[in-house]
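Subject line: Sequence and fold of a protein, written as structure tokens
Body of memo: The sequence and its backbone structure tokens, given next.
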Amino acid sequence: MRIAFFSDVHGNMDAFHEVLTDMDKCRIDAMYCLGDNIGYGPEPEKVLLLLRQGTIPSVLGNHEMACLDPSTLDWFNPAAKESLKKTIQMLSKESLEFLFGLKKSMVCHGCRLVHGFPPDSPITYLFQVSRKSIFRYMAQMEERICFIGHTHELKLIEFDGKTCMRNSLKKGILPLKEQSRYIINIGSVGQPRDGDNRAKYVIWDTIRDDIEVRFVRYDIKKVVDKILSAGFPEVHARKLR
């Protein structure tokens, strides 16, 4: 199977549309989302509608958590908090019901999916976790691969049974090792923070046992204009450039 994993669309419908179009060209058999479909971007309702219409499974992100539990809004910086308040006002009853149905993690095709850090945290960033804690988790993790998002940066951690090795992920195909375990951060569709503003997602080929990191171009200026026209904080527009 060829399975696509994407994360952190953040209301960026233009980037999401181009990623889905790219997936169509890549003979994808299934796709999964790792959360934070909303927040920052100008079209959260359209993004959630497309997820629902496509019956694309998703786990819960910290931005979805904030929409369901306003008490968590204080965890966010002022600009993110402002955008989330606006986002909540833009969501339909159907979209809110969809968010209430999201789980903190899921296991599919023998791999674990979680927004932040396994086994099921939507809020913990990979860079917040100590090397010792990562080693301890990977030494006992039940699934061979865990796909995560949240940081908006591509990253791979490999555990060979003795050592945890951190590597940056780059565009292209990377073979996986049968005896190793992996935590793979798949970057962001809607707001990358790795120095390259193209949308990112990952394809796992279960037969060849490799991952392919895809970079997808979209009309950034168009999204910037939408963010500003919708009254979202300007900082969210600047981060796309």
Remarks:
- The CA atoms of residues 63 and 69 lie 10 Å apart.
- The first strand starts at residue 2 and ends at 6.
- Residues 104-241 form a domain with the Purple Acid Phosphatase; chain A, domain 2 fold (CATH 3.60.21.10).
